[in-house]
Design a protein that fits this description.
73 residues, 18% helix
């Protein structure tokens, strides 16, 4: 199985955004555009190079709830 370059898929990039526009559902906060394709693919088609602004998104850390939730009346 081939690994795809994250600079082309953008799914783990912190600048990827999902827009409300049905015709242009993907956007890039760093470059400031929306498109029907993933931003990394648009950058590759436009410039011929992979995205230089790719920054890996930090995973969300969930807060652990306490086991004792108090007295239920």
């Amino acid at each position: 199985m081939k690994k795809t370059d994250p600079r082309l898929t953008c799914h783990k990039c912190q600048f990827l955004q999902v827009t409300y526009d049905a015709r242009r559902p993907w956007g890039c906060r760093k470059f400031g555009f929306k498109s029907p394709n993933l931003p990394g693919q648009v950058v590759m088609a436009s410039t011929g190079t992979k995205c230089a602004n790719y920054a890996k998104r930090e995973p969300v850390q969930h807060i652990q709830e306490p086991n004792d939730k108090g007295i239920i009346a």
